[in-house]
Amino acid sequence: MKTRSETFQIAKQMPWENPGPGITRQIMGYDGQLMIVKVKFEKGAVGTLHEHYHSQATYVASGKFELTIGDKKQILEAGDGYYVAPDELHGCVCLEEGILIDTFSPVRADFLGI
Which of 20, 29, 66, 76 has a CA between 20 and 30 Å from the CA of residue 97? Predict the structure, then answer.
């Protein structure tokens, strides 16, 4: 069972997954304690409200998103970011096509199928 990524991640050589309509993700670097994931959203795509035990910090690389975290809503665009505490309900709606860079601690084993 692989518990860490390769040292370098070359984007054009890495596969994309489709976790939902209008959403694709590329798993980048990880080990047991940390994971970074690039997530592309088409305009109108919905990151369904969900929760997980991982801490999450996300950077908005491009686009515009309406985020819901707990009982708060905020519109974020390129250069902004957000933090989600463990077990906090969160989700988003993509207002303008874009990319989020998610970081998780610990690793999202469910994304790796382990």
Answer: 29
pLDDT one-digit tens code per residue, 26-52? 999 999 999 999 999 999 999 999 999
Strand intervals (E) in 7-89:
17-20, 23-30, 35-41, 46-50, 55-69, 72-77, 81-84
Q: What is the CATH number for 43?
A: 2.60.120.10
Predicted confidence at residue 76, as pLDDT, reads 98
Domain that holds residue 62: 33-109
Q: Determine if the pTM surpasses 0.90.
A: yes
Coil, strand or helix at 98 = strand
- Which amino acid does the sequence have at 7? T
Over residues 90-101, mean pLDDT: 98
Residue 27 inside a domain? The answer is no
Contacts of 25 (CB under 8 A, 6+ apart): 16, 17, 19, 37, 38, 39, 40, 111
Domain count, the chain: 1
